[in-house]
Amino acid sequence: MAASASASPPRRRHSHRDDVSPRRRKRRASPSPSPPRSPSPGVDADRRRRSRASPPDSDRCGRRRDAKPSEEKENGHAKPGRDEDGDNRPPRRDRVSDGEDGVERRRMRDRVSDDEKEEGRRRRRARDADDEPDDRRGKRDRERERDSRRHRRRSPSSESGSSSDDRRHRRRRRDEGSRRRDDRRRREDDGDERRRSPVKREPTPPLPPPPPLLPEMIPGRTGGIYIPPFRMAQMMRDVEDKSSPEYQRLTWDALKKSINGLVNKVNATNIKNIVPELLAENLVRGRGLFCQSCIKSQMASPGFTDVLAALVAVVNTKFPEIGQLLLVRVVLQLKRAYKRNDKPQLLAATKFIAHLVNQVVAHELLALELLTVLLENPTDDSVEVAVGFVKECGAMLQDLSPQGLHAIFERFRGILHEGEIDKRVQFLIEGLFAIRKAKFQGFPAIRPELDLVEQEDQFTHEISLEDNLDPETNLNVFRANPNFVEDEKAYENLKRSILGAESSEDEEGSDAASDDDEDEEESDEEDEEQMEIRDRTETNLVNLRRTIYLTIMSSVDFEEAGHKLMKIKLEPGQEMELCIMLLECCSQERTYLRYYGLLGQRFCMINKVYQENFEKCFVQQYSMIHRLETNKLRNVAKFFAHLLGTDALPWHVLAYIRLTEEDTTSSSRIFIKILFQELSEHLGIRLLNERLNDPNMQGSFESIFPKDHPKNTRFSINFFTSIGLGGITESLREYLKNMPRLIMQQQKPESLESESSGSESGSESSSAGSSSESESKSSSDESDRRRSKKRRKRT
User: Fold this and answer.
1) For bias kind Basic and acidic residues, which ranges apply (predicted)?
2) Taking the CA of residue 512 as centre, how many other CA atoms within 13 Å lie in the half-sphere pointing to its CB?
3) Using CA atoms, how far apart are residues 233 and 756, in angstroms rounded to an integer?
4) Which of the residues 7, 226, 245, 605 has the least number of beta carbons within 10 Å of its own beta carbon?
């Protein structure tokens, strides 16, 4: 039985396409109860030999994946090692009966149908791939590859090993996923067909034009819609009824924008210009807007608190109700921040109150009451706020209420001794005591540029923190006024009385007829002609210097540089800048270049203006010669020596040099030494001596060769001798030799004059002399007599 089994060839596997007889189909349907056949040892050896001789590669395994399991199962055992997917799995069990073969065939049939479905899906995806973007296409390709890889990993052997429940669950999940993908693809196909269908749609009718902007269309409390200024002015001109609510709303919005703009741009330099513009607006109607804008601006930028307080102080002198309303709102804001523990808002409110106290808009009792509340139950934040408040208004409290400030500092001392607060706050208190000791130096009450109101003209408001205050928030919102026209006229009259006749003249001029407009235009043109614009940033001057420097440094020779520099358009008075830049470029070089001397000589020869400017440069450089380094000093001296040697610069500039020991320094002596040494090299000692001895130029050389005193003369001679130019001092040496004789000659006429005056006075004094001699003789005789008497008594 075993031999027959081993000799029989393996049976061929029939696929579902083969023509199977009914008898064989019936035999397969009814499994036989016989035990499974075991393969013979010869077959196993033959199979092992074939597997060693030709191991299956990956391609062959992939192509024959569907055939191998069936063949192995036909032979009655599974091949150990790798299965269809190439994974290391345990060997499969032998087929028990023909019933399992039928199950296997059905399984393979399902797999073939799945492969056909997957191929159809791929074709549809390839057809739809042209309409998809690149990024979506790449994403879908990756998903498809992942699905196909998962599908390949599934094998009948693994499914056979799993339970029926797992197979059913996996099949249901696969069917649901395929159904979901088919529905999504069907929806996409329907959308593509709808997009590609040539159905003509009716064109949509054009939108009607927007209605014209009317005043009653402006919604909201703040206007809602932005209207350009010219459009707003046109709308206000078109409105005929000046008392209508629409016109009042337009004027309200314009007033709000104007007040906000003026308050936001005020600073210490332009506050004097902002105040008239602010008073020109209707502050009685917009007092709520003004207070709201001031508080918001102060909260946004606390550094401008003193400026806003000064602005409020000026407005308070004309409209005390506005100052009181602002103070009430600031106090309410302070109380609200104190209850909410809002430290930033509390700091801003206390700073505003401090500067209002400095401007005498608020009474000093409010400041003392606030400090008492802050220091009653001290915490780190409350003490810090109190310290900042005292820094801001301590100088004013020191003048207005020194005893109250002393009590506040005693409370600070008590808090410091208790030591219950943080170390940082303790250091703040100690710093405050140091500021008080320095009499609040560095924390002035009012800056000089913000001291705009006299204290006698100011209205001071007394408000307590315990009062019931009304902020009057209804003033911030627009409300129609039945007496709008009368109120506007009344404010116009009030504005004329405040601002004077200039405002009334301006208003009359703005309301005048076309003839007046023409006159104003002519006057404006005249004013524009008379107005001069001055560039205080010196931007044009810096650009000119840059151009001159680049031209000088980029030129090959002095002729090219002179040609380019002459093309530069210089305004009258800017010739000096060219001379200064030429001298600066020369001084910055490591060694002197003759290029600069030739360029300066060319400009001096072209225009006398440059000659005069170089004379000024010589005087300036000699006066500041001690500031220059030795290298710069040498280059400057050689530059001017070149100009003097070529007669481009007149020699009378040497009159500014005074060669004495007292009037010179070491730097100036080096400058003079290099200057004259260069002149001697350029001209020669003989020609230089002739120039210096020119009788027409002696007045200019007296300061270099002084003859006023022998000491100065010797100093000049010794100086030129030490630098090797003693030959130019021959005339000065002769003058020094003849100086005693000249002094004697000068003294002789003086002695003759003194003798003549003495003879005249001698005759007058002879009589007096004889009388005095007689008196002296008589007195001497008396003294001799007394001496002789004394001698006699002794003997």
Assistant:
1) 67-121, 134-148, 174-203, 774-785
2) 15
3) 102
4) 226
440-449 contacts, C-beta under 8 A, 24 or more apart: 440/391, 440/394, 440/395, 440/398, 443/391, 443/392, 443/394, 443/395, 444/395, 445/358, 445/393, 445/395, 445/396, 445/399, 446/306, 446/310, 446/358, 446/359, 447/268, 447/306, 449/268, 449/269, 449/271
Q: What are phi and psi of 267, to 5 degrees?
A: -150, -175
Per residue in 291-321, pLDDT (tens digit) is: 999 999 999 999 999 999 999 999 999 999 9
Interhelix angle 343-358/380-400, rounded to 10 degrees, is 0
Burial class (CB in 10 A: 0-12, 13-18, 19+), 108: middle
What count of other Cβ atoms lies within 10 Å of the Cβ of residue 679? 23
Which residues, 6 or more positions from 712, have their beta carbon under 8 angstroms from its beta carbon? 659, 660, 661, 706
pLDDT value of position 756 = 56
Q: What is the CB neighbour count within 10 angstroms for residue 555?
A: 17
Q: Identify any residues that bridge with 461 across adjacent strands, giving them in sequence order.
A: 362
Q: Rounded CA gap, 150 and 158, in Å?
A: 13
Nearest-angstrom CA–CA distance, 259 and 231:
19
- pTM of the shown model: 0.41
Q: Are the C-beta atoms of 689 and 712 separated by less than 8 Å? A: no
How many CB atoms are closer than 10 A to CB 13? 17
Range 760-778 average pLDDT: 47
The amino acid sitting at 320 is P
Radius of gyration from C-alpha coordinates of the chain? 58
Which DSSP string corresponds to 583-644? Answer: HHHHHHSSS--HHHHHHHHHHHHH-HHHHHHHHHHHHHHHHTGGGS-HHHHHHHHHHHHHHH
Question: Residue 75: what pLDDT?
Answer: 42
Contact criterion met (CB below 8 Å) for 720 and 726: yes
> What ranges make up the beta strands (E) of 213-265?
none
The three-state (H, E, C) secondary structure of 655-695, written as one string: HHCCCCCCCCCHHHHHHHHHHHHHHHHHHCHHHHHHHHCCH
Quick one: 305 exposed, middle or buried, by C-beta within 10 A (0-12, 13-18, 19+)? Answer: buried
Closest CA to 324 of 458, 476, 462: 462
- Phi, psi values for residue 512, rounded to 5°: -75, 180
Domains and CATH numbers, the chain: 240-476 (1.25.40.180), 540-744 (1.25.40)
